[in-house]
């Protein structure tokens, strides 16, 4: 045992979708996302067992693998844990339904001389399939203790923990490599099949997947896919809108209350126009983000995402990607950061290179506040379907630009590497509402925690810069024009002028490099210095924008200027957290810098072009 | 050995809904290994469930597990109808 700790270190090893992460959650009481999508554990998680079990285990969850012969990153990660960690025990997680295939892993562990215990995950599906297993035979053949575990309800975990703890043979690091020759692999798979026949007493009846008749139907599947995606994105706007009105109302009331209590003055202005309105401008979008996460987790849990990846493989293959890129790209519609992390799942380094490059082009939730503001401005007082439709156009156009960029990279990057698409389609499951809700809440919360402090900090800086030097006799406009911020902005104005923007909007645009949604707060702080109209923050900001003009009197926010700004936001990589994650994930600052420069130069050029040609 | 070539087809050309037995894998070592690990070993029962439009992947049932694979990959899996 490890000298410096009283913990026994236990690694969970198993195939994708075998129930490893569920078991990990039961053992440790931690709540990592388990999704019904093969390959969702991309790095190893660690946790300590709950006191209920009466043991001190440190449990390590590893990426799901089909074999211990290394052919991808996931297998390398798992092998590395087996080779390098000071382990005490290994638990092999096998899905009772998939025993025939997964026994290969058991044989490979035996070949490597690694002692293990077996957690046989059974669920209602296994019960339904009426497979009866000969457990003593399994235990004897593998020379390993076997415990049956219910992954959904947690039954049997205590028994498993006890068996693992009492297992006689200590862990030994593997001293050799597994032979990867065709003959050896073939012999081993053959052997695992013979073994499975001894253990599985009765063949289960054929699994009925009625849903698959529709969802992966040769012709119907595509229209259904389009409908599902359309339903997801419309609900993001329609279901969210009353909630957004509520949040907007709450912040506006709070701001009104502040000015009533503190009257007119520096403090009142700081709290009301600075902090409350700046935060409100961003928090308005939390309902939308929550609903997007809710929809994504419904699709993941039900098992549909694996089918959708299959459907979309052909078009993605055309631009040098594969169906496996679908989930990272779709996550990119919430936020590029988890999207970039999800690309670890891609087996091909080249595919990953391209996918990471185009991920920032997907319309992330941080752009929503910006588009919502700019579209609300363009279609002020007009029926809601107009901004709605425009937003749909923006989403599709962004995805299209992403596809074109991927295609260009695909043609530039020469390769001999073969692209694979082999994907397991997990059985359909009815998603558990409670888990979906808590999961979406957690992800939304993480978003707020990431964005909240940054936005708060920048509002603080912006507000200070607009109030230095301060003179109480100045009007709001005079105050802004004499501030330090104005000096900085005017110095940089030549850069923004070709896009049709003045220094104030330019500053808001620059501040968006911290995080895109900061743009809206910055606009609120810079333009909303005058008193807020009662009722709605957004309406009062739009009124300010409608009045904003250049010193020579003509308006700033003309249609061409606003459209140019939208184009800029579609293309630009204005998110330093994304670049940070890209550098870390790709292990190359050159890649991150290249991406940052290319996307922003293209965005600037396109915006200038749009404004000048309009 | 294979005597009757008429009952011997790559998975990519197998008719929909008709179960068949895998007789051989004709890809390179790497490809064959990946396929075997996923359950396409000699003797496994395979049924094509559907083909995605525009030359997209096939959805197949291998020993009751649903899997998706591209046509080029399905090309190397040789079947015999029983």
| Annotation, overall tally of beta strands of chain B | 6
Model regions low in confidence, pLDDT < 50 over at least 5 residues of chain A: 1-5
Give the oligomeric state of the chains in this entry, treating copies of one chain as homo and distinct chains as hetero: heterodimer
User: Main sheet of chain B?
Assistant: 6 strands, antiparallel
Distance from first to last alpha carbon of chain B? 15 Å
What is the typical, i.e. mean, pLDDT of chain B? 86
Task: Count every helix of chain A, treating DSSP H or I runs of 4 or more residues as helices.
Answer: 27
Strand fraction of chain A: 5-15%
Give the proportion of residues in helices of chain B. 10-25%
- Helix/strand/pairing class of chain A, anyone? alpha/beta
* Topology, number of strands of chain A: 7
* Rounded radius of gyration of chain B (Å): 12 Å
Structural class of chain B: alpha+beta
Shape descriptor of chain A reads: elongated
| N-C termini distance of chain A | 72 Å
Provide structural commentary.
By secondary structure, chain A is an alpha/beta fold. Chain A has two domains: 8-204, Rossmann fold; 225-415 and 432-613, no CATH class. Chain A has 27 helices and seven strands. A six-stranded mixed beta sheet of chain A has the order 2-3-1-4-5-6, sandwiched between helices. In chain A, strand 4, helix 3 (99-111) and strand 5 (117-122) form a beta-alpha-beta unit. Chain A is elongated. In chain B, strands 1-6-2-3-4-5 form a six-stranded antiparallel beta sheet. The longest helix of chain B has 9 residues, at 29-37. In chain B, a hairpin with a 2-residue loop joins strand 4 and strand 5. By secondary structure, chain B is of the alpha+beta class. Classes of the chains: A alpha/beta (614), B alpha+beta (82).
